[in-house]
Design a protein that fits this description.
single chain, about 110 residues, alpha+beta, five-stranded mixed β-sheet, globular
């Protein structure tokens, strides 16, 4: 089975997404926290220095795809210009979804 086929069948994978736009100071991180928890995902969301928001989440690909769709929308007060995404193998090291401060080193 190819890697893409394995990811499509619900196997646990990692999504690393950065959201660009007016996404800080508008409740974006807590919006992502609620969505991710509702989807049963593990990971974190944090503000990053250039005014963006970064989200790293692991779970079944269909659930991560749902989260990605929500990242493109954001809460009502946000203006999402674009979302960069990377699909990676899961590491299983993330734990319950949380909001992190912008000063954390990442994963």
């Amino acid at each position: 089975m190819s890697g893409d086929a394995a990811m499509a069948d619900g196997q646990v994978v990692r999504l690393d997404a950065t959201v660009i736009g007016r996404v800080q100071g508008v409740g974006f991180r807590y919006f992502v926290l609620r969505e991710a928890m509702d989807l049963g995902l593990e990971g974190w969301v944090a503000n990053v220095p250039a005014g963006a928001v970064r989200c790293v989440a692991e779970g079944p690909r269909p659930r991560l795809q749902s989260l990605l769709e929500r990242l493109h929308e954001g809460p009502a007060s946000a203006i999402v210009e674009r979302v960069s995404e990377a699909w990676l193998p899961a590491t299983g090291t993330l734990g319950p979804f949380e909001v992190r401060s912008g000063s954390h080193p990442g994963d």
